[in-house]
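Hi support team,

I submitted a single chain yesterday and got back a structure, but I'm not sure I'm reading the token output correctly. Could someone confirm the output below corresponds to the sequence I sent? I've pasted both exactly as they appear in my results page.

Thanks,
R.
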Amino acid sequence: MMKNKLCAIVGAAMLASCNSGWHQENKDAFYEACMDDARTWVADPAKQKLYCDCVMIHVMDKYPDVNDALEHIEELAKDPDIQVCKTPIMK
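Hi R., thanks for writing in. Yes, this is the structure output for that exact sequence:
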């Protein structure tokens, strides 16, 4: 589910910016896609934010270039480092 939302939103941001790296509009689009996904499985806005903050750190660490992140979006949805972000939320 997250994969589809991330593709759509981050894809639009990528079209707006052909430069490499994570420009603010790329971060904002990716984060908003994450929050949209988090809202589908956790009701608490603080937990949604905690999760997406964690996801952003891992994604940006693993893929310093947003274009690389987009090329690996399917792997990101299954990435163990990203799955770890759910652990404190599910308690």
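A quick pointer for reading it: Residues 45-62 form the longest helix (18 residues). Let us know if anything else looks off.

Best,
Support desk
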